[in-house]
Design brief:
The complex is a heterodimer of chains A (about 260) and B (about 190). Chain A is an alpha/beta fold and about 260 residues long. Chain A is built from eleven helices and twelve strands. In chain A, helix 6 packs parallel to helix 7 and helix 9 packs parallel to helix 11. In chain B, the strands form three sheets. Chain B has a six-stranded mixed β-sheet with strand order 1-2-11-10-9-6. Classes of the chains: A alpha/beta (about 260), B alpha/beta (about 190).
């Protein structure tokens, strides 16, 4: 039976792993390689590694790091961070990345998304969208580079564009719920799910494994991502890398398939 | 793929010429990209002819993965171009009417429903083992008897096909953790 993925999301800045709260307070975690090895030993479903300093520094995700990840991991991993040319994307895919994640480039140059899909196939591409509520409570795309919100009307146009382009996956990051550990932003996920037929990976807010079950009961999606949850032991934030066991995976499959009926 | 073979201690080489194909003991066709681009490159570099010749003359084993599996067939809905035609069959888009199975690609972990048992390639692999899938198209062989396993995503489709020493798998064994390693090890001892 089909089983959706449970995906640790690792953020890298200037070569180190870190974690944020609402995309603001930074907290250093440690050396990425060690963390990655531990996740490989857990045989995670997939790993997402995002270099958030890349766009500021205008330096693409480190190819060397991708090669190292490819050598260490026996499970799939996706990378993202200032990958805005066909060549840089090709190099990442050859180096072993399962999927390349496009961020700001998709916002700034939507036509490029179509070009990438045509060249590498939709399954090789994911687009990551950061979404925040405006003061009226409407969902808007948030550009982390200039800290600006796009108008709420832009969101559905953008999502539909990605749908038409047939990207492999849409990663929805809830800025409001990021690092808060209060559960997934269900309202946001339901909203986006109704706009597109592309597989969805939700990120932002998960505090414990049951949050994944709770989201699935409302809207079964294809990937449940989290940063804090798999890295910290609790709300008190002691670092303890963890991942659900086979019993949980069985429960998730059961709940997921029940939710589809 | 390279990393997987490296870890398994296989004697492998990434090749791209006609001559290299004729010298190989087995050929692995990995699967990233689009059918049209891959088919065009295979034809353009004369590799299609080389593969067919090597298979004809030396019974070269061929292992197609994901897109590589689609390339074993004749044509694909995904794009123009001819596949190798080593296994008669067409590749078509996954079409499911209802949510969430209407979402494609089929992206996630899934199991195999084996049809034939005791196949060397699937030795040690059970219905509890999961493999990593990421595809929007699936291969439909004309001769259904060569389907070794089906997988369900809204509908069943062939996930493993074996025709003599031509093998196609829809999932990515190189990304499928322990189960994938077991399958690749079986393939290596099988050739």
């Amino acid at each position: 039976m089909y089983r959706p993925r449970v995906v640790p999301v690792l953020l890298i800045s200037n070569g180190s792993l870190y974690k944020t709260r609402k995309f603001k307070d930074f907290r250093y975690i440690g050396d990425p390689l060690n963390t990655v090895r531990i996740f490989d030993s857990f045989q995670v479903d997939e790993l997402v590694v995002l270099d958030t300093s890349a766009s500021y520094l205008k330096k693409p995700f480190s190819l060397e790091l991708t090669e190292t990840l490819g050598a260490e991991l026996s499970v799939p991993f996706s990378v993202g961070g200032y990958l805005n040319t066909l060549k840089s994307i090709e190099l990442q895919l050859r180096a072993g990345a399962e999927r390349v994640i496009l961020g700001s480039v998709a916002l700034e140059n939507p036509i490029f998304v179509g070009e990438v899909v045509r060249e590498f196939g939709g399954s090789s591409i994911a687009v990551c969208v950061d979404i925040k509520r405006d003061w009226r409570g409407n969902f808007c795309i948030f550009n982390h580079l200039n800290k600006k919100k796009y108008p709420s009307s832009h969101l559905s146009r953008f999502i539909k564009m990605l749908d038409v382009a047939s990207v492999g996956e849409l990663i929805i990051q809830s800025v409001d719920f990021d690092g808060m550990m209060i559960g997934y932003d269900t309202e946001l996920i339901l909203n986006i799910a109704s706009m597109t037929n592309v597989p969805l990976l939700a990120v932002g807010g998960a505090s414990n494994y049951q949050d994944i079950i709770r989201l699935t009961q409302k809207v079964p999606i294809n990937g449940y991502g989290a940063g804090s949850m798999f890295i910290y032991s609790s709300k008190l934030k002691g670092v303890l890398i963890n991942y659900p066991d086979i019993e949980f995976k069985r429960e998730l499959v059961r709940v997921w398939h029940e939710a589809t009926l | 793929m390279v990393n997987s073979f490296e870890k398994l201690g296989a004697n492998y080489e990434v090749i791209s010429t006609h001559r290299e194909i004729l010298r190989a003991c087995a050929l692995v066709l990995p699967g990233v990209g689009s059918f049209a681009t891959a088919a065009r490159q295979l034809q353009h570099l004369g590799l299609s002819d080389a593969v067919l010749e090597a298979h004809e003359r030396f019974r070269l084993p061929v292992f197609g993965i994901c897109l590589g599996m689609h390339l074993l067939g004749d044509k694909s809905d995904e794009g123009d171009g001819k596949g190798l035609g080593l296994i008669r069959g067409l590749t078509s888009r996954i079409e499911n009417d209802y949510e969430p199975f209407s979402r494609i690609p089929h992206l996630g972990w899934n199991a195999l429903r084996q049809i034939h048992f005791h196949l060397p390639l699937l030795s040690g692999i059970s219905s509890r083992d999961e493999f990593y899938f990421c595809h929007s198209y699936h291969f439909n062989p004309r001769d259904k008897s060569i389907v070794a396993a089906y997988t369900n995503y809204g509908q069943e489709f062939a996930s493993v096909v074996i025709s003599e020493n031509i093998v196609g798998v829809q999932f990515h064994p190189e990304k499928s953790g322990h189960a994938g390693k077991a399958l690749l090890t079986n393939f290596m001892s099988y050739i």
